[in-house]
Amino acid sequence: xxxxxxxxxxxxxxxxxxxxxxxxxxxHGHDTxxxxxxxxxxxxxxxxxxxxxxxxxxxxQSKAAHDAMKSxxxxxxxxxxxxxxxxxxxxxxxxxxxDQVHQQNSGxxxxxxxxxxxxxxxxxxxxxxxxxxxxxxxxxxxxxxRAQMRASHGQQ
Length: 156
Hints:
By secondary structure, this protein is mainly α. The protein is built from 6 helices and no strands. The chain has one domain (2-152). Helix content is 82%, strand content 0%.
């Protein structure tokens, strides 16, 4: 029984660490999300005034979504620490809190994504080519990174 409890606590702790790292943006710069790529192309896109306003709005929504995720995961981390300090942690309450935070984060993430997609819809064909080329470059960069990681770990 004691081994099972230790295993469960370790699993909860690992989930908390993974969630915290993800919220902290530990993605090593290999983000291939097409919407995220647009955010890094402001200067290259040569946006008009209307597009620049949409860009600023989408960027503000993305920052708000990121802040909401960090806040939610901090809440999960604090609740996890509180529960683990008890002799009989309530893992069900941690799971419910995690589900609630995930649902809230999903909503703000979708709003930010919609703002970026609305901006993309206003881009000219030449601007869309810039986005396409940047996405292809990111995918190639991510594939190269994965290949290097596999090679360094002796995998094929």
